[in-house]
Amino acid sequence: MSELVSDRLTLTRHSDAEGWSENVAREMAAILAEEIRLRGRARMLLSGGTTPAPVYARLAEHPLEWARVEVGLADERWLSPQDRDSNAWLVRENFLKLAEGAHFDPLVRVGKPLAECVHDANLLASHSQPACMVVLGMGNDGHTASLFPGSRDLELALGSKQPYAALDATGCPVANDWPLRITLTPRGLAPIGKRLLLLRGKQKLDVLNAALESGDVHKYPVLAAIDTPGAKLHVHWCA
User: Fold this and answer.
1) Which domains does the chain show, CATH number per domain?
2) What global pTM score does this model have?
């Protein structure tokens, strides 16, 4: 394991996938434990995707007071939380079922329209204890959360004064069959205590480096996680 520290981010390179998941889970557990010690409760935001799933399972093995932990999402597809393609389902199957007692707040509420779900998410974010940590991923197109380059609502989401925004990613190939999204915005990201970006594979590292060289948040929205004022991004990478 090696670490590179710059004024914009910290990059930790792990030698193998097992060490990567174990070390990230250990860092997450330490952040939660400290927050519980200081404030009595901890709130964190998680992302979906296959990359973080083993990390979540490892995290659940740590002997924390899970009843004192609240879990939200960095973003969500416009799907029922019971749909296997939703981020809620992935978090539930890989973490919540193992971390008994943890409280979960999905972004999508069955029976409510998209605008109302976004309103509820912003209300909750504004009145809840600030999240001590957010776990993010990045696509090969440079998106993070559901901030997709080329999406019609990207500019509105980046400039939103609310923690969450609706986003239509129609025409963005990486959005696949789920163009309608709810996503964390830079405004929502700013007050979060720790920012973790989990990456696997050389291509992801190449995309991150291209983003840093570009400086164009519209081309590489992952830059919102790097350049939004607040906590320095900690990138965990392995091949």
Assistant:
1) 2-238 (3.40.50.1360)
2) 0.97
